[in-house]
Automatic annotation (TrEMBL):
Keyword presence, Glycosyltransferase: no
Lineage of the organism: Eukaryota, Viridiplantae, Chlorophyta, core chlorophytes, Chlorophyceae
UniProt topology in membrane: Single-pass type I membrane protein
InterPro entries the record matches: Ribophorin_I (IPR007676)
The keyword 4Fe-4S appears for this protein: no
Protein name as catalogued: Dolichyl-diphosphooligosaccharide--protein glycosyltransferase subunit 1
Oligomeric form and interacting partners: Component of the oligosaccharyltransferase (OST) complex.
GO BP, sorted A to Z: protein N-linked glycosylation via asparagine
Predominant subcellular localization, coarse grouping: endoplasmic reticulum
């Protein structure tokens, strides 16, 4: 096995060495753009096939310090991207600390022909603050290191290098031989012919007037609900990766010194979909209201103001969430499949992400899940999430990528199958749970869980039934109380001889109303007697008291009539009978209260 590995390694070296001999770079123009908080190196090359056959592979190389931080590497021929893959081993003769990539052309380069290509590398985290620490209001200076020449396994006939800077404030650059500074540009116009692997360090020390907005960690969760919305929640840890702040920090000084804010930032701007709604912005303390949102027909722009300005080295955590409708993001595909189309990374301006995790939460029951991703180095894994009414959990596709720049915020697609039955599962489950609950309550009310039925239990049951009958009796007692009140009012109303003469007939009519009540109450009393003699005795005693009260009311009525017939004035008659009237009214009230207490047991 070890011999086989040795043979393969030697073969790879020979192939790479042969590839190096097959091209000559006739002209190389390097443009290193440092105006942003990450570097972009664009190498415009004219390469000639000097080998003995047609070629389809080209090798590009970078120092390891640059290669390890490359976020995007593109090889373009007439603006058309070519396939690029890292080489496991650098070509023969490469100096230490070099990483190489092989571009495979879509069309071969004929023998003796030339090809024009652009090699574009976007690199993050390559600026070194110097000084490493600065006080509030001081300028931020950084150093950038690279190779002056095109680091290539091929011979280079002519080449030049240009460094584009954000400001014209350059403390130093090296080498100075052959170099010149003009405004915010450092140029090496004619570097001459160089053999393969030409190495000379390029260093530029300059003022960078932009804050380094680095997202250390971003977790995006995209949850799909087939009931109308897609919920997006983004959790950030963002840091100012520039020169570290030292000394005191004054908000007053910060507010009144616009020129001293270039190495810090108080906010970040996000470009969300135009249909975004239900936005929220919070951190560990709670909701943050200091943000502005602008809706247009093309996008929703949100300006997220942080709780405090981020000076160099400072960091903060926050969560941004919003919802979008299914329309425009979820599409129907052939054979009943669905396709979710969303952006991969952050929508914030001028930030790069060290570690990106995008979690796609699909509905429970989703099957045949397949992702179509814009980059080959995205890692996929699976998880489950349990939310309301979930039983088996919702499938979660987890996408992970490191070192992500804004130009990599590309759409990705997730295809899956989801049936109408699966969409109705949760509502049906909710209905079933409530139906089962109500059925259980109804069944519980109809079941008797008594373990034993002794005499006390039977007495209690009989007592409860008897109380129910007593409550029915109270209806008759209430009507008797009404008759008693009307008799008392009838006595009050007698004021002359005609009314006194009519009083007996009125009394007989009221007493006639009580006769059917007596018959009905006797029937109920007999039932109470069978269940609870004690309650029956109390009820019978209460009924006897009503007859006594009826007799007193009849006597009051008779006495009032007699006085009126003897030509006693009505007010004098009422005065003579006032005491008896008060006592009767009080007795009626006590009798009514006694009936109510008796019905309550």
């Amino acid at each position: 096995m070890s011999r086989l590995c040795t043979v393969l390694v030697l073969a790879a070296c020979l192939v790479a060495s042969a590839a190096a001999a097959d091209f000559v770079v006739e002209n190389a123009s390097r443009r290193i753009n440092l105006k942003n908080t990450w570097a972009k190196a664009i190498d415009t090359l004219k390469a000639k096939n000097t080998g003995g056959s047609d070629l389809s592979n080209f090798v590009v190389c970078y120092p390891e310090s640059i290669a390890s931080r490359i976020a995007v590497l593109k090889v373009l021929i007439k603006k058309e991207k070519q396939e690029v893959a890292p080489l496991q081993q650098a070509p023969q003769g490469a100096p230490a600390g070099v990483s190489c990539y092989q571009a495979t052309f879509k069309s071969t380069v004929k023998k003796g022909a030339t090809v024009d290509l652009d090699v574009v590398a976007t690199v993050t985290g390559v600026f070194k603050p110097n000084p490493a620490k600065i006080a509030q209001g001081e300028k931020q200076y950084v150093e950038y290191y690279d190779n002056l020449y095109l680091l290539s396994p091929y011979e280079v006939t002519e080449q030049s290098s240009t460094v584009l800077l954000p400001t014209s404030d350059v403390r130093s650059f090296s080498p100075q031989d052959g170099g010149s500074k003009s405004g915010s540009k450092v140029s090496y116009a004619a570097l001459g012919k160089q053999g393969p692997w030409a190495v000379q360090q390029l260093k530029v020390h300059f003022h960078h007037d932009k804050p380094f907005k680095r997202v250390n960690s971003l977790v995006r969760e995209i949850e799909v609900s087939h009931w109308g919305n897609i919920y997006v929640e983004e959790t950030y840890e963002i840091q100012n990766a520039g020169s570290q702040h030292t000394g005191k920090f004054s908000r007053l000084t910060y507010a009144h010194s616009p020129d001293g804010k270039t190495n810090s930032f108080p906010d970040v701007k996000a470009h969300l979909p135009a249909a975004a709604h239900s936005l929220y912005y919070k951190d560990i303390i709670g909701n943050i209201s200091s943000s502005d949102t602008t809706h247009t027909s093309r996008e929703t722009l949100i300006e997220v103001r942080l709780r405090y300005p981020l000076m160099g080295g400072w960091k903060t955590d926050f969560t941004l969430g919003y919802s979008v409708p299914l329309e425009g993001f979820l599409y129907r595909r052939p054979k009943g499949k669905l396709r979710l189309l969303m952006d991969l990374s952050t929508s914030f301006d001028d930030v790069w992400v060290e570690q990106l995790t995008t979690r796609v939460v699909l509905p429970e029951g989703a099957k045949h899940i397949k992702a179509t991703l814009p980059f080959a180095d995205i890692q996929q894994s699976w998880d489950k999430k349990f939310t309301y009414l979930d039983t088996a959990g919702r499938p979660v596709l987890v996408l992970s990528k490191s070192n992500v720049v804004p130009e990599q915020n590309k759409p990705f697609a997730v295809d899956y199958s989801f049936t109408f039955t699966g969409m109705m599962r949760e509502p049906l489950l909710l209905i079933s749970v409530f139906a089962a609950f109500f059925a259980a309550v109804a069944l519980y009310n109809r079941l008797d869980f008594t373990i034993t039925r002794d005499e006390k239990w039977q007495e209690g049951q009989a007592h409860d039934k008897a109380l129910g009958l007593i409550q029915s009796l109270t209806e008759y007692w209430d009507r008797e109380a009404d008759v008693l009140d009307r008799l008392v009012r009838l006595a009050h109303s007698i004021s002359n001889r005609p009314s006194a003469d009519a009083a007996p007939a009125s009394r007989q009519a009221l007493e006639a109303e009580l006769r059917p009540l007596d018959e009905q109450s006797k029937a109920l009393l007999s039932q109470v007697e069978a269940l609870s003699p004690k309650l029956a005795a109390a009820a019978r005693n209460h009924g006897d008291k009503s007859k006594v009260l009826l007799g007193r009311a009849a006597k009051l009525l008779s006495d009032k009539s007699d006085l009126i017939k003897k030509d006693v004035a009505a007010h004098e008659a009422s005065a003579k009978l006032a005491g008896a009237t008060r006592q009767l009214e009080e007795a009626i009230r006590e009798w009514v209260d006694e009936g109510a207490k008796l019905a309550q047991g």
